[in-house]
Amino acid sequence: MIRYKKLxxxxxxxxxxxxxxxxxxxxxxxxxxxxxxETVYLRSSRDHHNLILEQGPxxxxxxxxxxxxxxxxxxxxxxxxxxxxxxxxxxxxKETQSLAQGRTLxxxxxxxxxxxxxxxxxxxxxxxxxxxxxxxxxFLHVVYDTNRFDELLDFYTNVLNFVVSDTSGRExxxxxxxxxxxxxxxxxxxxxxxxxxLNHLAYQAETVDDIGKQVNRxxxxxxxxxxxxxxxxxxxxxxxxxxxxxxLTLEYSQGMxxxxxxxxxxxxxxxxxxxxxxxxGGTPKPDFAKYGKIIQEDLAKVEN
Length: 304
Ligand SMILES: CC(C)c1ccc(C(=O)O)c(O)c1O
Ligand SMILES: [Fe+2]
What we know:
The chain is α/β, with parallel strands linked by helices and about 300 residues long. It folds into 2 domains: about 5-130, 2,3-Dihydroxybiphenyl 1,2-Dioxygenase, domain 1; about 135-275, 2,3-Dihydroxybiphenyl 1,2-Dioxygenase, domain 1, CATH 3.10.180.
């Protein structure tokens, strides 16, 4: 059984590395760590990185990385994923050293083709992460649209050991999932859509006031606000969505429900209504979750 410590980081392709680095540092509120050629590492915790930006010809999601609960579980997880036919590849020492982390495997989900990294022992920085104007406290979740919803839900729950926190729809069209035994209502969610793509990424804000202050800062900096502020019924969080320089949707979220490892409440089936998504009755802007290509990587090319 796979046991996770947390959602660690994502790797994004961006079309203008300098512009996006400035945005994630000075608007989103992350801390710049280092740049190695066309790759930039940023953090929102004591980890060496919680976001990697890479210059690319088109913007999109390149990888999603989860930290395993214990280093001792790495080989068992590698063998398990191999048994499941997922053909994981272990990264070379050279690559894990660049990433400042321990043993790392990479595989592709066979349904929508997202590349995952499962890793252990990320380097902890000497100085704590100091939130700037936008007080973010952690990387919280990743959401996809998919036209293969049932298969993807089955894959996450029955192969990767994610647990359903809530669903929505008579025929389920939304699922909010947590990587067991991480406590947050969801570090991954999926929704039925015409195509397979990233819907958004979410960061936790420290307080509700920080979300309110961000509304003014985003407006002052002409950053498009795409939805909110409002309150999501599923996780109970206060939210605010906005666009990054490539149009990718980002969310600040505050006050998400947390689950214990044992004795957690049962998942609810929620009405697929406007009020379920926003108890305050707001409506997303047309550009909400419009961009978010999933970059298909050829894992055969991974150097090992
Ligand atoms: C994608 C939608 C709008 C959504 C719905 C509910 C929650 C939550 O309960 O936290 C989200 O985070 C969402 O992004
Ligand atoms: Fe979200």
